[in-house]
Design a protein that fits this description.
CATH class: Alpha Beta
Radius of gyration: 12 Å
Distance between the termini: 26 Å
Strand order of the largest sheet: 4-1-3-2-5
Shape: globular
Largest sheet: 5 strands, mixed
Oligomer: single chain
Helix content: 25-40%
Order of helices and strands: EHEEHEE
Length: 90
């Protein structure tokens, strides 16, 4: 199991990035959350098996069709096991 925090920068707000990320994470069976940041980026925390987290991060590097991802910065966190699904946070 692995838990990460990722900060995604580029054109990632107003392009359905959060909704698309949430769908991708749920399809992969990952728990956590995604939200917009005040600086124009998107932040997420995700927890799940290593392979699924790697797949989500690969997806985050592309994002939905209208996005232009410039960078995905990842921080490893301690696994918490406290969430039951992946949500869009506000």
């Amino acid at each position: 199991m692995r838990r990460i925090r990722a900060i995604i920068t580029g054109r990632v707000q107003g392009v359905a990035y959060r909704a698309s990320t949430s769908r991708a994470a749920r399809t992969l069976g990952i728990t956590g959350w995604v939200k917009n940041r005040g600086d124009g980026g998107v932040e997420l925390e995700a927890e799940g098996p290593d392979e699924q987290i790697a797949a989500l991060l690969a997806w985050c590097e592309q994002g939905p069709p209208a996005a232009k991802v410039m960078n995905v910065a990842v921080i490893e966190l301690a696994v918490s096991g406290g969430e039951r699904q992946f949500e869009i946070a506000f």
